[in-house]
Amino acid sequence: MTDSKTLETIVDAFSKQTSFIDRKPIVVMDAEIATNENLIMLREKYYDYICVTCNKLKDYEVRASTN
Question: Burial level of 7, CB count in 10 A (0-12/13-18/19+)?
């Protein structure tokens, strides 16, 4: 799916089929899906993510997982 508005539906369906107990999922997405709203939603649901951007990198932060 390429519609950025469907990511939460997909993540919720995926969450019902998996467990965070033994492993932590990582969402990999392209720039069209990586909207600010989607990145906030993923953080709120405790998902890590990797994405690309179409813009020049201006200010970014790399966060290491503490788990």
Answer: buried
- Separation CA 45–CA 24 (nearest Å): 11
> Cα separation of 19 and 39, whole Å?
20
Tokens 């989607």 map to which residue?
A: 38
* DSSP character at residue 32: T
Please measure the distance between the N-terminal and C-terminal CA atoms of the chain and give it in whole angstroms. 30
User: Domain locations in the chain?
Assistant: 1-9+20-57
Query: What does the pLDDT read at residue 1?
Result: 47
Nearest one of 49, 57, 60, 51 to 14, comparing CA atoms: 49
pTM above 0.85, yes or no: no
* Amino acid residing at 51: C
